[in-house]
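Intended use. Records such as the Malonate decarboxylase acyl carrier protein entry shown here are meant for training and evaluating sequence-to-structure methods. They are not intended to support clinical decisions.
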Amino acid sequence: METLSFVFPAGEPAKARALVGCVGSGDLEALLEPGEKGSLKIQVVTSVNGSAPRWQQLFERMFEEQRPPALNIDIHDFGATPGVVRLRLEQGLEEIGHEQ
């Protein structure tokens, strides 16, 4: 198990919370909660050791073209593919009312 932390620029704090996905065979769970203005903080607990560069690239692609709301995101990963990660994060952002 490995714990990774990432920080990205963000806008105003989100106004809602969301819990998406479930930890299980090849999936992940993501908890999105309002964060501090200007900061998107992501913590990933993953079963895949040495995967930090993959996570970094995924988050950079997702958040370089948009200004996400300020959030604290906790991800519990059980070997999810990048496509599943992105799907769950987009699902969570939609639930809190942030349009992509």
